[in-house]
Design goal:
Number of strands: 5
Shape: elongated
Order of helices and strands: HHHEEHHEEEH
Distance between the termini: 75 Å
Structural class: alpha+beta
Largest sheet: 3 strands, antiparallel
Strand content: 15-25%
Oligomer: single chain
Length: about 180
């Protein structure tokens, strides 16, 4: 039998850890990202992880969306609020460190929206939006000559939305 050296070993602890991680994330997470976040401890295997995740879904503490991503339910939030501190502090601290950049990237992705609509003539109308989580900061509609150009505009906006918004605001508010 293979020996594992982590603090999290039994199914209950694995489930609590999964709920703890999911509770920190602002939106549904891809299965591969969740497994990367959960398997840092080394005390349990991927098979233990998948069994526990399936049981959490079955019990209604976690839900899986149509795209296969996982999110904690309100029932799961309540439960982890009661038992989340039973995870050793060092494990919670490491989970927090690993989860923080993922959560930040998720929040950013929720604040940036891009769409394009192809026209009959082959051009496309590209809509770009940036939100601060409360209000829309920037909304811009552009006409692109073709679908490939529209896709390139969307990609660039998704990568550099904040910098583009700052530059536009700087140009519009500069003294003449």
């Amino acid at each position: 039998m293979e020996e594992h050296f982590g603090f999290i070993r039994d199914k209950l602890d694995i489930k609590i850890l999964l709920l703890y991680i999911l509770e920190k994330l602002p939106s549904p997470v891809e299965p591969v990202v969740l497994s990367d976040l959960a398997l840092f401890d080394g005390g349990f295997t991927w098979f233990d992880y998948t069994d526990c995740l399936a049981e959490l879904v079955e019990s209604g503490l976690v839900e899986q969306d149509p795209k296969g991503r996982y999110a904690i339910t309100e029932k799961g939030r309540q439960d982890v609020g009661f038992v989340g501190t039973s995870i050793p502090y060092s494990v919670r601290a490491k989970a927090d460190r690993l989860t923080a950049p993922v959560a930040a990237a998720m929040r950013r992705a929720c604040q940036i929206e891009t769409t394009s609509e192809l026209r009959r003539d082959g051009s496309a109308v590209v809509s770009l939006r940036l939100s601060d989580g409360v209000d829309e900061v920037l909304s811009l509609r552009l006409t692109a000559p073709d679908e490939a150009s529209a896709a390139a505009i969307e990609r660039r906006f998704q990568k550099k939305a904040e910098a583009l918004c700052d530059e536009i605001l700087g140009l519009l508010t500069a003294e003449e």
